[in-house]
Design goal:
The protein has about 160 residues and is of the alpha/beta class. Helix content is about 40%, strand content about 20%. The protein has helices spanning about 15-25, 45-55, 70-80, 90-105, 125-135, 150-160; strands spanning about 5-10, 30-35, 65-70, 85-90, 110-115. The structure holds adenosine-5'-diphosphate.
């Protein structure tokens, strides 16, 4: 199978992301998890912190962690990936993903976007809902890789 690139903010990586990555790693020869930097967004974690959390959470030989400030399609070309992989939880995701996929296709029609449904356990998992859970005093550990739970909870608590 070809190589795929799974881009996102990963602020921080969640069990929903991890599930997509683990399933993709069984299908594709190589999966590049790409932290894409959106200059308009403000993040809880720095790029280095996000890369470090991804590295500590993922233990699969055919998964590589990378970052870009440029176009995802340019990164695909650079590493020889022909597929952009995205995750889908609900109709809101669909609308957003449709726009991004048309945009990427217009830039480079040789690269296909493929969508993978969330598993049932992570249908409502998102980086932002995790922040809300912690801020409301709830337990976010079921939604986060065990390697990063303490660090994420501490950072959100500090931002209160
Ligand atoms: P974005 O900045 O686009 O929101 P994210 O880091 O939140 O990036 O997510 C990257 C990709 O992973 C997106 O395609 C998003 O829809 C998908 N995703 C996020 N959470 C989940 C989840 N729980 N299940 C499946 N896909 C998910």
């Amino acid at each position: 199978m070809p190589f795929c690139v799974y881009p996102g903010s990963f602020d921080p990586v969640t069990m929903g992301h991890l599930n997509i990555i683990e399933r993709a790693a069984k299908i594709f020869d190589k999966v590049y998890v790409l932290v894409s930097v959106n200059t308009k967004k403000s993040y809880l974690f720095s790029l280095e912190e996000k890369l470090d959390m991804l590295r500590r959470s993922i233990h699969l030989d055919n998964v590589e962690i990378a970052a870009t400030e440029g176009l995802v399609t340019d990164f695909c070309k650079k590493v020889g990936a022909s597929v952009i992989l995205r995750g889908l939880r609900n109709p809101n995701d669909y609308q957003n993903e449709l726009e991004i996929s048309y945009f990427n296709h217009s830039i480079d029609p040789s690269i296909e976007t493929m969508l993978m449904y969330s598993d049932r356990d992570n249908l409502f998992t998102s980086s932002s809902s995790i922040k809300e859970v912690v801020l409301c005093g709830g337990d976010a550990s079921p939604f986060l890789p065990k390697e990063i739970v303490d660090e994420v909870v501490k950072r959100i608590d500090e931002k209160r």
